[in-house]
Amino acid sequence: MANARSWLIGEVAKIVGTSPSRIRAWEKEGLLNVRRTSSGHRLYSTADVERLRELKRLVDGEGWSATAIKANLNAHFPDNMSPSNAIGRRIRDLRGTAGWSLRDLAERCGVAPSTVSSLERGQSMPSVGSLHKLGRAFGMTLAQLLEVDEADSSLVVRKGERVLIPMHTPGLAWEKLYTGESVLESLMVTVQPGAGTDGALQHYGEEFLYVVKGSIELVLDGHQKYDLHAGDAMTFDSMREHSYSNRGTKIAQIVWVNTPPTI
């Protein structure tokens, strides 16, 4: 290890769980810009490691192409800024624009001021539930909160053209199936085995979901459990606390529709 916050390519490959050759290939495709020593050796920072982990998830777990990744990942975290720092800065800027104190925002979100402070300083990543609360406090959808550059509306959205919502929740991915103005919001939700929402969600509206493949356990109001498998569908009021997880051994994919748009 070159210093306390830098790693060589072999070390990073082990941390991320991939090969050095694959990391070099991603760099050639323009998915990563790495600092080098005077002798030409690559040095990877903590932000680089976070970015590589996200690249691996998108490629291996979601089957994204290099073009699709560039359109989404680079837009949200320029210059290899770590996801936690980028989101923290965004929250801090929005709070400043609103003229709110840490306590003001915390009260609107129903969390402790120390939690907001930790998020703003990039010391932690907000959960899916926290992102929903923050979006509601600022009067924004998650896409607006996370500054997602949405593509122009189109009657047809190809697989590689979906807009990824950069939540950075391990094993959970939300892709927008339509980005134009609509009273409906449609997502392709992918849940890796053992993953799920890290806490309950609650917001205004109504939800419909259809399990395309795999299975999930959906919990309403903290105790009503529903095991949903490929071909199953479900509808519920979004104000009911809801969470879901993949307790199986295979990837689950769900078409998820809600109204009004909150993502």
TrEMBL record:
Q: Name one GO molecular function term.
A: DNA binding
Entry GO terms, CC: cytosol
Report the residue ranges that make up the HTH merR-type domain in this protein.
Answer: 6-75
According to its UniProt record, what is one Pfam family this protein matches? HTH_31
Task: Keywords in alphabetical order, please.
Answer: DNA-binding
Q: Which InterPro entries match?
A: Cro/C1-type_HTH, Cupin_2, DNA-bd_dom_put_sf, Lambda_DNA-bd_dom_sf, MerR-type_HTH_dom, RmlC-like_jellyroll, RmlC_Cupin_sf, TransReg_Diox_bact_type
Q: Describe the location of the HTH cro/C1-type domain by residue ranges.
A: 91-145
Database matches in SMART domains? HTH_MERR, HTH_XRE
> Which CDD domains did the record assign?
cupin_XRE_C, HTH_MerR-like, HTH_XRE
Its name, as the record gives it, is MerR family transcriptional regulator
**Species the sequence originates in:** Mycobacterium simiae (Mycobacterium habana)
